[in-house]
Design a protein that fits this description.
about 150 residues; Ferritin-like; about 85% helix; 5 helices; DUF2383; PA2169 family four-helix-bundle protein; mainly alpha; Ferritin
């Protein structure tokens, strides 16, 4: 019984992160369309591809656990993308607004990964995958700060 409960909690954790990665991928694609700097557009495209890869890795972990992966993002992610539309429409510096939203989103993502990784039920290969993904999210946060130079 305890093993089954552990498995259910791990599946739930992975499903949440899977949805967050779907949301992030869509968000990066959305703001890529609004960005003015070609360098920023290129970077955003790479981040969207990276998040798609994260989702694929989590999908595989879920299938290994005999769980059916969710196939779409969250309502909260959709609402955040609407907010980005409004914010960039009202902003005189779209690229700066985009970078601010990237920072906010990546901080939230890093926190989500941290919370999931600190739980006792994230173990084995899932823990390895999530640890590697969190490290990449943290690298993205550092890179966003350097990108501000590209859009000035």
């Amino acid at each position: 019984m305890e093993n089954s409960n552990h498995n259910e909690k791990l599946v739930g954790s992975l499903q949440e992160l899977l949805q967050k990665n779907y949301d992030a991928e869509k968000g990066f694609k959305q703001v890529m369309q609004k960005a003015e700097s070609p360098k920023l557009k290129n970077w955003l495209q790479k981040k969207a591809v990276e998040r798609s890869g994260f989702a694929n890795e989590i999908d595989q972990e879920l299938r290994t656990l005999n769980a059916k992966p969710r196939d779409e993002g969250s309502f909260a992610g959709s609402a955040h993308r609407v907010w980005i539309d409004v914010k960039t429409a009202l902003s005189s510096d779209k690229d700066e607004s985009i970078l601010e939203e990237c920072i906010r989103g990546e901080k939230a993502s890093a926190d989500e990964y941290k919370d999931q990784l600190e739980s006792a039920y994230v173990t084995g290969s899932a823990k390895t995958v999530l640890t590697q993904q969190r490290a990449k999210v943290q690298q993205t946060l550092s890179a966003v700060k350097r990108l501000e130079d590209l859009v000035d």
